[in-house]
Amino acid sequence: MRKVVIFLLTFIFIISVILSGCSGKSAQSTANSTKEKQVLRLNLGEEPPRLDPQTSTDGVSFQVLNAVLEGLVRLGHDEIPQKGSGLAKDWKISEDGLHYTFYLKDNIYWSDGNPITAYDFEYSWKRALDPKTASDYAYIMFPIKNAEKYNAGEVSADEVGVKALDDKTLQVDLEAPTPYFLSLTAFITYLPLEKSFVEKVGDKLATTPDTLVYSGPFILKEWNHEQNIVLVKNDKYWDKNNVKLDEIYMDMVKDMNTIAQNFDTGQYDVITVTGDYVEKYKDKLQIYPNGFTYFLAFNTKNPVFKNANIRKAFGLSLDRKQLTENILKDGSIPAYGFVPYGIPGKNGEFRKEVGDLFKEDVAQAKELLAKGMKELGITTLPKIVLLADDTDVAKRESQAIQEFWRKNLGVNVELQNVPFKIRLQMYSQGQFDVILTRWGADYNDPMTFMDLWVTETSGEPNRVFYSNPEYDRLIAEAKSTNNNEIRMENMKKAEEILMEDMPISPLFFSATAYVQQDYVKGIVRHAVGVDNDWKWTYIEK
């Protein structure tokens, strides 16, 4: 009996060890197979006004669209279009620079499982140009043959220089050699939509997550308006193996104090900071120029601002150094021209080659104001309203500008701070006297800034209604030649005219000051196009 008991005890012990070992192995296997979710938590800051790539115009929408859609190329760290970086595996360019042939990758699919074809590109590009679409960014496609004429209703869509030769081949003909055309194809307006899907959903397109199909690294999972957006990895994306993030969570918080608190408590992984918060995070702060010029835009249809001397008085009376160093504190620098630093010119940077084109002078500003009022036959100015966003930083900027005008010109200007979406709408409809706004580089050439102010035509974004025939001539000539020296010289002369007439008054070349948690890696930050690309981002923890 004793031997039997010992045997039974030994047997039970051995079995328990085996079972324990199996259980331990199973638990370890389960732990290894269930990896921790890769989640990036951000603050988008604003509600995207729209997520239709052919009609979107703002940087907030661009950020989201760049994450969920992809074009022929996707720009990386160096901002140079590389073959295979996007949906095109290769392309050929004719010797005269007028004809492009793009070859799409094999096995590329929309998020609904349908193949992405060259016909989707042809449809989307012509949709952007269709006068019925009323795209504010249609002009960015005007390098394409007959694009401007189609947008103006002068030719049919069949005459536009975009044609799908088959599912994988897209042929593009240009009006004139355009050195930056490949970069343009990475821009948001050039991103494709699935033709059959757009026709199915109609006017509901891009209003909810299920009214858009996706070709990029992520898809839109949730869109809680004015609250947050949630993106998740797109399993149909051609390069999904190089996408590490499972989810991107984006809030729409405007209050800087709340944003900072959320970062400090680990609720946000990266935030941008301004003002006093720059000092708070000085030990972890990183700064990069973001390709934006902030400026005041004067409505030249306004009875006051139709006068160039008054516009110049308002522009020359501002202390840009005080604005950047005491209000922003984020690495932004005063702007005395419209094209920012970093954009190429003849041999180096355009801004360095052209130099400063005006200087602040309070005494001269007072003289110009008096002269302008005399020209208009008025002794007092009517009510003037400065329109700006309602974020903390925009409120501080607009208050500082208001004080400069009160102190230096003796002019009392009212402030109107409104939500981003409303401000864009009022700007596009000309419902403003003077507005605090910005423009960023859509592609890496001065033309992305300079062709904004040609006399308004169909599709042009000249929202201040400025017109100067000589300016128009210089820009048209710069667009018609492939000679870089002529192009840059013309744009230099055009910028000189712009700053002399001053329908816009540059304030500062913007920089982004940000802090991010140490475990966040691989965010690609651009000075051209969108600010951030999260395709290669991952969480190291």
Structure notes:
With 541 residues, this protein is an alpha+beta fold. Helix content is 34%, strand content 19%. It is built from 17 helices and 19 strands. Strands 9, 10, 11, 12, 13, 14 and 15 form a seven-stranded mixed sheet that branches. It has a four-stranded mixed sheet with strand order 1-8-7-6, with no helix packed on it. β6 (218-224) and β7 (228-233) form a beta hairpin. α9 (308-316) runs antiparallel to α12 (362-376).
Question: Key terms for this structure?
Answer:
single chain; disordered N terminus; 541 residues; 17 helices
Topology:
Elements: H1 2-33, E1 39-43, H2 59-68, E2 88-93, E3 99-104, H3 118-129, H4 147-151, E4 162-166, E5 169-173, H5 181-184, H6 195-201, E6 218-224, E7 228-233, E8 247-251, H7 256-264, E9 270-273, H8 276-280, E10 286-298, H9 308-316, H10 320-328, E11 333-334, H11 350-354, H12 362-376, E12 385-389, H13 392-409, E13 414-418, H14 420-428, E14 434-440, H15 447-450, H16 469-479, H17 484-501, E15 504-516, E16 520-521, E17 524-525, E18 532-533, E19 538-539
Parallel strand pairs: 1-8, 12-13, 12-14
Antiparallel strand pairs: 2-3, 3-5, 4-5, 6-7, 7-8, 9-15, 10-14, 10-15, 11-15, 16-19, 17-18
